[in-house]
Amino acid sequence: MQLKSLRLFMAVAETGSFVAAANQLHTVQSNVTAHIKKLEEELGVQLLQRAGRVRPTSAGLALVEYAERILTAHDEAVSLFKGQEKACGRLRIGAMETTTALRLPPILAAYHAAQPDVDIQIKTGPTAELVELLLNGQVDCVFVAGRLEHGRYHLLKAFSERLILVGSTPMTKMPSSQALLTSAFLAFRQGCSYRQRIELLLASYGVNAGRIFEFGSLDAMLGCVAAGMGYTVLPRGTVEAHQHRFGIHTLELPTSIANVDTYFVAPEPESWTPALASFADTLRDALVVDEPQLTAS
Amino acid sequence: MQLKSLRLFMAVAETGSFVAAANQLHTVQSNVTAHIKKLEEELGVQLLQRAGRVRPTSAGLALVEYAERILTAHDEAVSLFKGQEKACGRLRIGAMETTTALRLPPILAAYHAAQPDVDIQIKTGPTAELVELLLNGQVDCVFVAGRLEHGRYHLLKAFSERLILVGSTPMTKMPSSQALLTSAFLAFRQGCSYRQRIELLLASYGVNAGRIFEFGSLDAMLGCVAAGMGYTVLPRGTVEAHQHRFGIHTLELPTSIANVDTYFVAPEPESWTPALASFADTLRDALVVDEPQLTAS
DNA sequence: TAGGGCTATCTCAAAAAAAGATAGTAGCGA
DNA sequence: TCGCTACTATCTTTTTTTGAGATAGCCCTA
Predict the structure, then answer these.
(1) Using the CA of A50, which nucleotide's C1' is the nearest one?
(2) Residue spans per domain, chain B
(3) Exposure class string for B170-199: b at 16+ Cβ within 10 A, else e
(4) What is each CA distance from A1 to A12, A38, A49, B92, B285, in whole angstroms?
(5) What is the pLDDT of residues A175-201, one digit of tens each?
(6) Over the stretch A59-95, which tens digit does the pLDDT of each residue have?
(7) How confident is the model at residue A209 (pLDDT cuts 50, 70, 90)?
(8) In CATH, which of 1.10.10.10, 3.30.470.20, 1.10.260.40, 3.40.50.150 is domain B3-82?
(9) Largest alpha-carbon pair distance within chain B?
(10) Cβ of A74 < 7 Å from strand C?
(11) Which residue in chain B has the smallest CA separation from A44?
(12) CA A232 to CA A165: how far, in whole Å?
């Protein structure tokens, strides 16, 4: 069975005429006859009654219902990829907790304004988990810290974060090795790239296995830091956004450790849906606007 | 876009291999490549990632969802007509009130036992209305009294009813013209063929315009007859089935007026769905069994 | 009864699909 | 690192299907 045959059949059923159906679908009457005939042969049923008026038999009416479902689904599928100007469907984005909280909102707002028909789904998680999601096709794109070593992926440097040390008391210089060793560190669960930075930081101070507590949410983590539970390392912007809510203090870290780039990672552009392509556009636009601020900070 | 292309695409997505998909659908690998390539060109999107493992891109995964819907609907439509042995779908039957009450139950039971996957819908109404429904394709078949004059329809004499006069008092002979003229007659609403018989009966007694009350249900009608409201004319079997519930009495009518055949009417067999074809089989079987009783009565 | 509008059928050319053959590529193990 | 294997892409040929035109037959209407 051909989709084209179903289209012609529907046109005949609606117009009640082979000639009209042929004109409507830009072909000739003999082809309509041939398609309908083939359909009827395939299904072993007479679909149309040709006595004077052409009208569907009850078998034909039954087919109409299914043909509508089939053709509607087909049209939707095509418009998913060929939607003229306005994308539709679904966009699944993976991002780190900090990125989601601080960087995504304005971009998502702009995107939603541009593409109101796209369902947006955000999955948050640590970098390693996000990469896994992307590789498994469970998300369409991710924002992760650090370049993705995997080949065949589209990379775009999205945000430059500067990590700072966060603690519950004012700090003017780096805590001593001894202090670091006896303090706890609070980090996102295994896989978070910021956590790697914490371990790098500790290592640079000759401290190996500080106690690290794992957290799943930013609020919980900052709350515990404020309560004097220990230190954490977070992007400056994230901390500043929450600083008024918690009694926390910060300290600059050495540049080599502090600077972390967040990349937008997606498969090759050839496999992008219009929804994803449009998101990449929105993202690029937003970055051009923000770029001066980022470099100035 | 071709249904075949979607089938191949799904097979590739499932098996993760062009060769496997080709074998599964009994074709060769080069054709799978060609179909997928054409699909990708039509949609302007890369659907499959060929790096080592063949796996759908996120665009491909999006298409998978729609392809499933399309192919499922298609398969259902085909099985509607090509269902091997067991029909499915829907069967809409139109029948007169009396036929529905008296004749259909055993046939429907047998049919449902044979074809449990078919949804049965019964519409009751007077003959003229049923014919209209059939002509409009709102039912698949009807049981009506008298031959349908319309051409191009399949006719099967299903039941022979013998009409009798029903009244509230014992009758040994036909009421006088005077009695008929002053009595009311109760009938189904306009279009019922039994009603025509009533008018024929009255005419044969030289009575022209007796009062005729219209009813929509058998129970209401018999109840009113029992209450002495007037006479009615109904199939003997129908009356006998209800006689114990109502205080009603009957009288044989002249054969020329009394005998009414109920016909099974459907469009030409070429346009029958398997559900309808199977119902016709069931009906024929039931009639063969009942025939001796019918002729004996 | 003639004419207009409709569908079925036939035919031919063009397009498309199927199948086979071959070349190129990635992954795997020695 | 070198084949070996299994896979996909491409090219070619053959077969099938499709599209469009021409024509014949049918039904309805005037």
Answers:
(1) C7
(2) 3-82, 90-297
(3) ebeebbeeeebbebbbbbbeeebbbbbbbb
(4) 17, 8, 20, 26, 35
(5) 888 887 778 888 877 667 777 788 888
(6) 999 999 999 999 999 999 998 888 777 888 889 999 9
(7) low
(8) 1.10.10.10
(9) 98
(10) no
(11) B81
(12) 6
Neighbours of A124 (CB within 10 A): 21
Report the C-alpha gap between A249 and A256 in whole angstroms: 21
- Beta carbons within 10 angstroms of residue B115's beta carbon: 22
Residue-wise pLDDT tens digits, B31-83: 999 999 999 999 999 999 887 788 898 899 999 999 999 999 999 999 888 87
CB B234 within 8 A of CB B166: yes
| For A60, nearest residue in chain B (alpha carbons) | B271
Q: What residues of A are in contact with residue B60 (Cβ under 8 Å)? A: 271
C-beta atoms surrounding A254 within 10 Å: 11
The angle at the Cα of A133, spanning A127 to A138, to the nearest 5 degrees, equals 150
Instruction: Give the Cα separation of A31 and A43 in Å (integer).
Output: 18
Distance from CA of A97 to the nearest CA of B (A): 23
Using CA atoms, how far apart are residues A229 and B163, in angstroms rounded to an integer?
Answer: 96
Residue A131 identity (one-letter amino acid) = V
Cβ-contact A120, A111 below 8 angstroms: yes
Task: Indicate the SS3 state at residue B138.
Answer: coil
Q: How far is the CA of A32 from the C1' of D24 (A)?
A: 18
Q: How many angstroms is C1' of C12 away from CA of A31?
A: 15
Exposed/middle/buried for residue A295 (C-beta within 10 Å: 0-12, 13-18, 19+): exposed
Average pLDDT, chain B: 87
Q: Compute the distance between CA of residue A6 and CA of residue A272 in angstroms, rounded to an integer.
A: 30
Q: How many residues does chain B have?
A: 297
Distance A19 CA to C7 C1' (A): 9
Q: Answer yes or no: is A227 CB < 7 A from strand C.
A: no
Is residue A120 within 8 A of residue A275, CB to CB? The reply is: no
Contact between residue B273 and residue B86 where contact means Cβ atoms under 8 Å apart: no
The token pair that represents A136 in the structure block: 């498994």
Angle value at C-alpha A123, between A118 and A128, nearest 5 degrees: 135
Q: How far, in Å, CA of B243 to CA of B234, rounded?
A: 12
Strands A211-215 and A118-124: unpaired
- The answer to whether the beta carbons of residues A70 and B70 sit under 8 Å apart is yes
**How far is CA B88 from its chain centroid?**
14
Does an H or E element contain B180, and which?
helix B177-182
Domain B90-297 CATH (choose: 3.40.30.10, 3.40.50.1970, 3.40.190.290, 3.40.190.10): 3.40.190.290
Pure H helices in chain A: 3-15, 18-24, 29-43, 58-82, 97-102, 104-114, 127-135, 177-182, 193-204, 218-226, 236-242, 255-258, 274-296
